[in-house]
Specification:
This protein is of the alpha+beta class. It has helices spanning about 25-35, 40-45, 60-70, 75-85, 95; strands spanning about 5-10, 20-25, 50-55. It has a single domain, classed as 3-Layer(aba) Sandwich (GIY-YIG endonuclease), CATH 3.40.1440.10.
């Protein structure tokens, strides 16, 4: 199980590529599931596997609200948010391990 933290995360297919926003209690496990195509749907279909952004909170409700907020954001706002903290669009998954 997770560590009592909740994560809102953004995956990308590549720099400025297709984006996916999700929420989880176990970030490393969830991203691994996306990367290994264990999750049927959008990320498998569009090869969206690189963790390019995430933020953590102790409150599950805050995480869900933030996920919904980011999903409503304009694409450019999400790109700007990613580039402020991860200008190289590095896959942050390997930093978690």
């Amino acid at each position: 199980m997770g560590d009592g933290r909740y994560y809102v995360y953004v995956l990308a297919s590549r720099r400025n590529g297709t984006l996916y926003v999700g929420v989880t209690a176990d970030l490393a496990k969830r991203v691994y599931e996306h990367k290994s195509n264990q999750i049927d749907g959008f990320t498998r279909r569009y090869n969206v596997h690189n963790l390019v952004y995430y933020e953590a909170t102790d409150d599950v409700n805050s995480a869900i609200v933030r996920e919904k907020q980011l999903k409503r954001w304009k694409r450019q706002w999400k790109i700007d948010m990613i580039e402020r903290l991860n200008p190289e669009w590095r896959d942050l998954y390997y930093d978690l391990l």
